Amino acid sequence: MPIKLHTVSIRKGAGEFELAETLRVSPEAKLCGAAGNLIRCLSVARGRSVLTDVDPASLTTERRINDLPVFHRMWFHPDGDCLAYTQKGKVGNPSTLFFVTAKGSLAAQATLPNAISEATAGPACWHIGCRNGRLYTYSLAGLCIWRRHVVRPRPNPYSLVAAFTGATEPPYLSVASSWPGPPVITESERIFLFSQFGHRRWRSTIPNPHIEQYDLCMPSYLPVPAQALQKLGIECRDRVPLGFVRLVFDSTVPTRSTSAPRSLFNKSIESFEEAAGETGEVVLARVDLMPGRSGSDEVIRSVATWYQRIAIGTTEGRVHVFDFERTLLMSFCVGRGPVSAIVADHRGLKATYCAGLLTTFEDNDINGCVKLPDYYANVAGHVAGVLVWRWNTVWFVNSRGRVIWKAEFSKVVRSVIPDDVGFTVLAGHLFSFRYLPSTERNSP
Predict the structure, then answer these.
(1) What are 262's strand-pairing partners?
(2) Chain centroid to CA 296
(3) Rounded to whole angstroms, how far apart are CA atoms 86 and 406?
């Protein structure tokens, strides 16, 4: 039987890093991450999972844990614990959580009513977003501390079947936390900030640059739902959403835009109650006009947090930065396409990845950018720059946006783990790269 070689080819910057160690993990690991001071690798063989803990400095095996349940995904905690996840059915079926201690033993397991969207590490806990629209917080030992309802399932605006049947799609909650900060949740265009005790501090939406506001006098009477539906040509029903009633004011709203028909505008009436007098008569209301939901609607694609700050990236290439008091601090554009990744550390924004364009930051100001060949890629922060990988290629980009190192591996890159003296790549084997001494780096 021929031997499969796991090799690496340095394409650029051979004088920046050296290949210090290589380790073969058996069975072959499908993912790994930093669990405390060790690298924990997850392998699957014969219907069971195997965990291998490796010392990142010497790439020596510290421990190996066999005969564990099958894990499909795994998240790693700075304290050394891990959260594993198994989903045997499609979305909508229950899923199982496994809480793994720093020594590799199973502390507990729990069942959620639906699939997991994302999970993130908190202070001695896990924040888990579920496809049923709820946020769950578990201790490292597997005890459910609290759970909160975040959003409800809503119809797919792009589905013709949903328009007639009322079928809903499960929400996808993106969860981020600047350990040990509070959890931030995003879903579609909405942003939520929760406290560590499960109290929702505030809710907001992404800024809409196309919004227009009008002050207008409302009609002298408020139509009942039956009258509103009659005007819309819809048969009366027992329960009517308030949005249908608001559409009756369409004739009172001026339209300045001629590039889109009036039917493509959604209307939301703000300060409706504040405009009412003591007798309850509505005198004035403010109406916001914005383009209706379409294939190019702007929604949140990525989120990152650091000290008292939240950064979100949208599908239109914009980045918005809020503080923990819901104040919008700045907005800017980093490309034409979805912002698929935002990297931040304790100092602030570090990098964004938007449709192949990597933008680096220093003191929250743009410091450089570089165009990479892949539309989507994985990004991780490093003390000296940013690591980017896709398929079998890894790039190291410095803080000024220059690619100083590039390598291609014979197998697909599964994970890249940065550390203070270099980084480790999982591509079939574990490859440990370390900085070259300055004398060797500057030598011809």
Answers:
(1) none
(2) 19
(3) 35
pLDDT (tens digit per residue) in 195-241: 888 899 999 988 876 544 444 444 445 555 566 556 655 555 544 44
Output the CA angle 227-233-237, nearest 5 degrees. Answer: 65
Contact between 189 and 205 (Cβ < 8 Å): yes
d(CA 252, CA 275): 17
DSSP assignment of 358-380: EEEEETTEEEEEEE-S-SS-EEE
The size of the chain, in residues, is 444
Per DSSP, the three-state class of 315 is: coil
113-135 pLDDT, tens digit per residue, is 989 999 998 888 999 999 988 99
Q: What is the CA radius of gyration of the chain?
A: 26
Segments of 173-222 assigned E as strands: 174-176, 184-187, 190-194, 200-205, 212-217
By three-state DSSP, how is residue 216 classified? strand
**Spatial distance between the Cα atoms of 79 and 84, rounded to a whole number of angstroms:** 15
pTM for this model (two decimals) = 0.74
